[in-house]
Every structure is written in C-alpha cells, then in structure tokens.
Write a structure and sequence with these properties.
Alpha-Beta Plaits; Rossmann fold; single chain; 4-stranded antiparallel beta sheet; 6-stranded mixed beta sheet; 2 domains; alpha/beta; elongated
C-alpha cells in the first residue's frame, strides 16, 4: 500500500500542499480529482520522489520508500515524454530494458501491451506520426511495460475518444485486478466515477474528501429520496417538511427535513398506491465534488 501522510509543500511564500494524506491500496483504482492548480501533480511527483516535500512522509507497505522500491513504480506524466523520432515498439521495449528486462522479453512485453492498447498495427511507426490520442496510448504503455506494482498516472484519459477511454480503462482495471496499486488523476469525473474503487478530492492543496466511492456517496447522500408509485404524487408538493426537486406524475425526487418526514411520506404513498421504489438518492461524483470544494 502506498501511504502519504502530512505532506506539505511551498513555493516561495505560497503553500501549495497542506497536510495532504491518503492511501492507494493494492488491487484498487484510486481516482485523484481536483481543479487546475489544486495540487494533484505536485502530490504525485512527491510520491514518486521527483519532488521533495517540505514535510510529511511517503511510505510503501509501512516502510520508507527506497530507490529500489521506486523501480517498482510506473509513472505517466501529463506532458508527453516519448522520443518522437523513435519507432513506437522500439521505444517501449527500450524502456523495459532500462528496468532490467532481456531484449527478447522487453520486445515481447512491448508488443503485447501496445497491441492490448490498440496500437498493434502501429508498432513500427514513429511516435511523431501517431495522433495525439495514440501517442497517449503509447505513453501509457511506457508506464506499464515493466509491470510495476504501483502505477501513478497524471491525466491518462486526456485526448482519448470514448472507445479509447474504454480500452485504457480496461487495461487499468486488469492491472488493479492483478494487485497493482493504481492512482490516476482526471478532470473527467464521469470516467472516474465509473472506474474507481476509491476517490480522493483535493482543493487548494488540502484533501477535502477521501474514501471508497460507496462510502463517500453514503456520507454525502443527505436527505434526498426518490419515490416511484402507480398513482399520482401531486400531494407530495404540500406535504410538510418536503421540498420537491423533480416531479413527473407518479415519480418524484425530493428533500426532507428529518428521517421521520421520509417515513411519513412512505406510509402515505403506500396507503395511496402501489410503491415501486423508495430509496435515498446517492449523489454523483460531480455533486460531491462541488459540495466539498465550496
């Protein structure tokens, strides 16, 4: 498990990270979200050892991270860093060689991974001839080719079309299923919500929320309910302690002032018509994000 505790970082007199701490568990996909300048990239670079923190610790399985440990990390920066004149497969295999792979194993790993990422027909093309989306896929392959145990990706879905997003998401999910700790940042909240097991939300250099997706949805569910019945719910508009958010005949979304009010609404609904659904409405990641950064 990758653990960050009390990470602080300042540039000049401006503190950009303030007591940042969270875990990236093995076998789980952790989404790291925040606005521009929130501190995501700085946090990732400190975790990798590219930047030094002013305070706090980064550990792996409870122990300080060594140089040897960092060889087990895979990293994809937001800025593309591949050599444009090199052939795609040749470059990815070269990176595997730097991690100690034999020439044969490096070439086999590179070819298999690039094919899995949808670049099987472009292995011998120069990087500069690829579209930006395909360059992104190649950059992801560079982070994965040495089979890391910890994977840190900065905006891996940037510039990808929906089909490519699904391909990359499948590859990351497969790595997580193999026990890899995966941390990635993204502005695409719908992708994060669909893919992640755990979420970390950062704003202005501080962690505003962290935990499993289910836990955060439950914590921020509030007092909003969805009700669907076989009858008309017009009476709900005049029910004390109820504020209707959305209404369509026998279907409604509403807020209540207390749990007792919710139960009273349910009893009246049951007395009025057959109830098809009555449940708390869990917020989307976008809703949670807006709530915690305010």
């Amino acid at each position: 498990m990758l653990q960050l505790r009390g990470i602080t970082k300042s540039y000049g007199g401006r503190r950009v990270l303030d007591e940042v701490g969270f875990d990236v568990a093995p076998g789980r996909l952790t989404g790291f979200v925040g606005g521009n300048g929130a501190g995501k990239t700085t946090t990732m670079r400190i975790a990798l050892g590219v930047l030094d923190a002013d305070g706090g610790t980064v550990s792996l399985d409870g122990a300080p991270i060594t140089v040897g440990d960092r060889r087990r990390f895979g990293y994809m920066p937001e800025e593309r860093g591949l050599y444009p004149k090199m052939k795609v497969a040749e470059q990815i295999a070269y990176l595997a060689r730097l991690h100690g792979y034999t020439k044969a194993d490096a070439e086999a790993n590179a070819a298999a991974l690039l094919t899995q990422l949808g670049l099987g027909e472009r292995l011998n093309d120069k990087v500069e001839t690829l579209s930006l989306g395909n360059q992104q896929r190649a950059q992801i392959a560079a982070a994965l080719v040495h089979e890391p145990e910890v994977l840190i990706l900065d905006e891996p879905f940037s510039g990808l079309d929906p089909l490519a997003v699904d391909v990359v998401a499948g590859v990351l999910a497969e790595r997580a299923a193999q026990g890899v700790s995966v941390l990635f940042s993204s502005h695409q909240l719908d992708v994060v919500e669909r893919l992640c097991d755990d979420l970390v939300i950062i704003a202005a250099g501080t962690i505003r929320a962290a935990g499993s997706a289910e836990q955060l949805r439950a914590e921020h569910a509030g007092s909003r309910y969805e009700l669907r019945t076989a009858g008309d719910l017009g009476w709900l508009r005049t029910e004390p302690g109820v504020e209707v958010v959305d209404f369509a005949g026998g279907s409604a979304v509403f807020d209540v002032d207390t749990d007792d009010t919710a139960q009273r609404v349910l009893r009246r609904a049951v007395d009025t018509a057959a109830v098809h659904r009555f449940a708390p409405q869990h917020p989307s990641l976008a809703q949670i994000f807006k709530e915690v950064i305010q």
